[in-house]
Amino acid sequence: MKYRHLFFDLDHTLWDFEKNANETLRTLYERHNFARYNSFSVDEFISVYSDINHALWRLYQSNKITQSQLREVRFSRTLMRLGVPEVEIPATISAEFTDILPQKSAVFPFTHEVLDYLKPKYRLHLITNGFNDIQGIKLASSNLTHYFEEVITSEESGCLKPDPRMFRHALERTGATAAESLMIGDNLECDVLGAYNAGIDQVYFNPDKRRHFNQITHEISCLSELKEFL
């Protein structure tokens, strides 16, 4: 068996971030009665938030903004773009989102089945750019905690994927070598290229079958496909 250690990304790979976030945003839309403005629907709220949040995450992963800056501005920018006066933006909405979101439990199809299959055969770990204060809650809410020996976060390691130093830190922390490790994730830059630059084989989880021209060790569109070669 070539691989002994499997490193998974969490958000968008196992834990269905988009579904869980959209449910949370619908709750906030209703809680704060944003319909009273008669200027944007809940779907528009979700769409604009998603665009702004993704852009801010790209800045965060490039070390151009901090975690606190990301959290502080994503809702104010969203609501101001949708026409809500700045003075009427709920001061607690970002904290509410951070409280509700990790309690959601949606995961991608076959997540538990595949992890049940892999757990007896491999040592499983997580490498995530997600924040320390909510990753553990996400894992518990979705019944994923018991699968993983180590959870390596960007805050704990001091760097962000795709920085190869984060992957080297993960290898050191788990006692693994690059040759016996495999990284599974949905992000071509952060997960695939980051692992490649650290000398680690990769699995690109591509459920939307996005076209690309990257050389990757393995590519899958469903987590169940992992069982075909692991």
H-E string: EHHHHHEHEHHEHEE
In whole angstroms, the N-to-C terminal distance is 9 Å
Number of strands: 6
Provide the low-confidence segments as ranges. none
Average pLDDT for all residues: 95
Q: Taking Cα atoms only, what radius of gyration do you get, to the nearest Å?
A: 19 Å
Alpha plus pi helix count: 9
- Biggest sheet, spatial arrangement of strands: 3-2-1-4-5-6
Q: Please state the overall shape, judged from the principal axes of the Cα atoms.
A: elongated
Protein model, in words:
By secondary structure, the chain is α/β, with parallel strands linked by helices. The protein contains nine helices and six strands, in the order E-H-H-H-H-H-E-H-E-H-H-E-H-E-E. Helix content is 44%, strand content 12%. It has a six-stranded parallel beta sheet with strand order 3-2-1-4-5-6. The protein is elongated. The model has no long low-confidence stretch (mean pLDDT 95).
Would you kindly provide a brief summary of this structure?
With 230 residues, the chain is an alpha/beta fold. The protein is built from 9 helices and 6 strands. The mean pLDDT is 95.
What are the salient characteristics of this protein?
single chain; 230 residues; 9 helices; 44% helix; 12% strand
Summarize the helices and strands and which ones pair or pack.
Blueprint: E1 5-8, H1 17-31, H2 42-61, H3 67-81, H4 93-100, H5 111-118, E2 123-128, H6 132-141, E3 150-153, H7 154-157, H8 164-174, E4 181-185, H9 188-197, E5 201-205, E6 218-220
Parallel strand pairs: 1-2, 1-4, 2-3, 4-5, 5-6
Helix pairs in contact: 1-2, 1-4, 2-3
